[in-house]
Task: inverse folding
């Protein structure tokens, strides 16, 4: 491997990590409260708002069911408005974040709904407010599932970040298309695939390890 190619791979890997990290952060900041609300706003629940719950559920489902590559193209005007351009790693963060938020929201909703409702009822009986229950009961009890959910979301973002390279998003996907496909350099494509696999394995291992540690801590307490 030439030094020039090695530098390109390193730069593209860093671009991918930048896109995924920022998109995961934004997606979590939006998806976490949205998922908690979806899990606690049904009939008879802490923040009962059935109509709002249904509307938000439809929006989340619509966003999740839209193929990512179509989403990237469809929101190009919005991406330009936010990032000032529709090309490059910073611009790619916009569709990645929009795709991540509803994905994380549904994962959070599922994790929160797994919490024993007896704990919620006991907390209400002791006079805890809904917000206190969310902070001190639901989130701590659902934490292992939340960690695994965010891990899954990051893995999905790594896949999407490679896909966004097809429309000039930068990163490893862009490198694979420009050099591996357009310049007939299959070795570059192979290296890109290997790097992506290593990134996915690293994220998955880290997430599972963190979830186990959090779970053990909860059991001790």
Result:
């Amino acid at each position: 491997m030439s030094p020039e190619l090695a530098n390109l791979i390193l730069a593209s890997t860093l671009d991918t990590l930048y896109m995924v990290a920022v998109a995961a952060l934004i997606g979590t900041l939006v998806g976490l409260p949205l998922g908690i609300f979806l899990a606690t706003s049904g009939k008879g629940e802490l923040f009962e708002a059935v109509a709002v719950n249904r509307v938000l559920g439809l929006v989340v489902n619509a966003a999740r069911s839209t193929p990512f590559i179509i989403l990237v193209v469809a929101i190009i005007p919005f991406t330009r408005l936010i990032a000032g351009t529709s090309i490059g790693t910073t611009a790619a963060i916009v569709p990645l974040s929009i795709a991540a938020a509803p994905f994380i929201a549904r994962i959070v909703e599922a994790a929160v709904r797994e919490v024993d409702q007896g704990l919620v009822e006991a907390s209400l009986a002791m006079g805890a407010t809904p917000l206190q229950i969310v902070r001190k009961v639901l989130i701590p009890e659902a934490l292992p599932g939340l960690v695994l959910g965010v891990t899954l979301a990051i893995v999905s973002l790594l896949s999407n970040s490679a896909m966004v390279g097809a429309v000039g998003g930068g990163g490893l996907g862009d490198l694979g298309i420009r050099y591996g496909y357009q310049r007939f350099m299959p070795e570059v494509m192979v290296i890109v695939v290997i790097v992506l696999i290593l990134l996915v394995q690293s994220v998955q291992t880290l997430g599972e390890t963190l979830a186990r540690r959090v779970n053990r801590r909860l059991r001790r307490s």
